[in-house]
């Protein structure tokens, strides 16, 4: 038997845990805590959001202990890069987990996401991996390793809070979101390039859209992993979700309750990425930054 390791990814919208042993998933969990709620507007983490995160982290700590994990790496991303009171979050993590969280740069986040996303894909690339998070979206181009990467502040929570106060949003609000996203995507693609590649999408927005497109009656990671969605399907989903009210979106079988209010912004981000890159399809991966974090601490 090999040693068990634990990876924790604390993002703007969710906190996730992966425990692996001998390359096998022992636990893979996700909880929506919305740590980054209001950060784009206030520049600070809400104490209630820190407490929500603490409660989940404490449960993760106990689960980690029950599996005899030898090494833990916790990574904190967009929300804690932006917040003026990030020290409150870090004090909580040390008190709860017994070790600090690493606040990684957007470029480091992109590299970890890439490493997880391309695991199990045929060939050697090139790949363009897009990781649509709550606070930011990472763009990473490479083969088996990263050639170029950039992180842009156009996550689904950030764009929802910034532009989409109504539900369903107005045409003007949708247009403002698209304008903001388009400018960021253009800058990102100028950095990572737009040459031929396999487009790979990771994280909750993309996997949820895949579940909807597959008409699943429950969230099924095995069917979602490596599903291929066409650009036309993404166009249709973005339009349909943008026209739905909250209750209609919440009734979609694969929709996590914590994603109902931010899936429109997420779908628009993915749609604009596909429009600007010209890719006709995207491969969905259930493997992402969590897998990259776990791999980074394994022998």
From TrEMBL:
<dbReference type="GO" id="GO:0016462">
    <property type="term" value="F:pyrophosphatase activity"/>
</dbReference>
<dbReference type="InterPro" id="IPR043129">
    <property type="entry name" value="ATPase_NBD"/>
</dbReference>
<dbReference type="InterPro" id="IPR050273">
    <property type="entry name" value="GppA/Ppx_hydrolase"/>
</dbReference>
<feature type="domain" description="Ppx/GppA phosphatase N-terminal">
    <location>
        <begin position="25"/>
        <end position="291"/>
    </location>
</feature>
<protein>
    <submittedName>
        <fullName>Exopolyphosphatase</fullName>
    </submittedName>
</protein>
<dbReference type="Pfam" id="PF02541">
    <property type="entry name" value="Ppx-GppA"/>
</dbReference>
<dbReference type="InterPro" id="IPR003695">
    <property type="entry name" value="Ppx_GppA_N"/>
</dbReference>
């Amino acid at each position: 038997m090999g040693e068990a390791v634990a990876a924790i990814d604390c993002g703007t919208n969710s906190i996730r845990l992966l425990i692996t042993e001998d390359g096998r998933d022992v636990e893979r969990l996700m909880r929506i805590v919305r740590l980054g709620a209001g950060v784009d507007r206030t520049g600070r983490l809400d104490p209630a959001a820190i407490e929500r995160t603490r409660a989940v982290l404490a449960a993760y700590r106990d689960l980690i202990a029950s599996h005899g994990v030898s090494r833990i790496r916790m990574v904190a991303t967009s929300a804690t890069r932006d917040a003026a009171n990030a020290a409150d979050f870090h004090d909580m993590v040390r008190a709860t987990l017994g070790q600090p969280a690493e606040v990684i740069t957007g470029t480091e986040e992109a590299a970890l996401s890439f490493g997880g996303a391309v695991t199990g894909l045929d060939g050697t690339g090139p790949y363009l991996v897009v990781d649509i998070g709550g606070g930011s979206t990472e763009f990473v181009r490479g083969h088996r390793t990263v050639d170029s990467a950039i992180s842009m502040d156009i996550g689904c929570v950030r764009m929802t809070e910034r532009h989409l106060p109504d539900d369903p949003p107005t045409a003007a609000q949708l247009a403002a979101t698209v304008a903001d996203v388009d400018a960021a995507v253009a800058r990102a693609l100028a950095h990572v390039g737009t040459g031929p590649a396999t487009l790979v999408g990771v994280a909750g927005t993309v996997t949820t859209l895949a579940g909807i497109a597959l008409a699943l009656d429950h969230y099924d990671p095995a069917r979602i992993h490596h599903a291929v969605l066409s650009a036309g399907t993404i166009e249709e989903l973005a339009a349909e979700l943008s026209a739905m009210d909250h209750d209609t979106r919440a009734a979609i079988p694969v929709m996590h309750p914590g994603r109902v209010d931010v899936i429109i912004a997420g779908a628009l981000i993915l749609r604009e990425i596909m429009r600007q890159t010209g890719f006709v399809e995207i491969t969905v991966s259930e493997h992402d930054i969590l897998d990259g974090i776990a791999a980074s601490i394994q022998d």
